[in-house]
Amino acid sequence: MTNGGTRGSLDETYHAALQHDLVSLSGDPRLVGVVRRPTNWFRRSVDENHRELGPPADLLDAFRERHEDLRSRGMCDEGAHNAAWEELAFEERYREHLQTTADAIAAIDDLVFRIRTGDDIVLVCFENENKRCHRHELVSVIEAELE
């Protein structure tokens, strides 16, 4: 996985894309889950999981409740997901978690170090490309640290 001292890479995908071969990964990247509540089948499909890089439990619970409410009012799954994301200021709250939680800060620092020293990292969670997802925000945070 180490590229002879050169900087590694950072990418992201979702579990179903891996499961159904919808994504092509070059080389031998480390699949890093970023899920707060991983299932057993998710754990088996990644090399490691960092719960601390998943959204905080209270935010996930509020999100799930709002998502279900919007769906019960007739909104499609994707629309309800993205609307709940916006209504709860999910991105801002998640970024605050990453900036203020010691375990999350340490995990980001570790991933940045690993990429700088040659590891190829692919962040993995559940949401497909049509839904807003914390892994996109996490990629942005890590990329900023790498600059």
Structural commentary:
With 147 residues, the protein is of the alpha/beta class. It has one domain (10-55, 90-146). The chain contains seven helices and four strands. A four-stranded parallel beta sheet has the order 1-4-2-3. Helix 3 (57-72) packs across helix 4 and helix 6 (102-116) packs across helix 7 (134-146). It is globular and about 50 Å long. 27% of the residues are buried. The model has no long low-confidence stretch (mean pLDDT 93).
Radius of gyration: 16 Å
| Helix percentage | 40-55%
Instruction: Characterize the main sheet.
Output: 4 strands, parallel
Write down the domain tally. Answer: 1
- Proportion in β-strands: 5-15%
Global geometry: globular
Secondary structural class: alpha/beta
Mean pLDDT: 93
Number of strands: 4
Question: What distance separates the N and C termini?
Answer: 21 Å
| Count of alpha/pi helices | 7
> Looking across the biggest beta sheet, what order are the strands in?
1-4-2-3
Spell out the helices and strands N to C.
Answer: EHEHEHHHHEH
Low-confidence spans: none
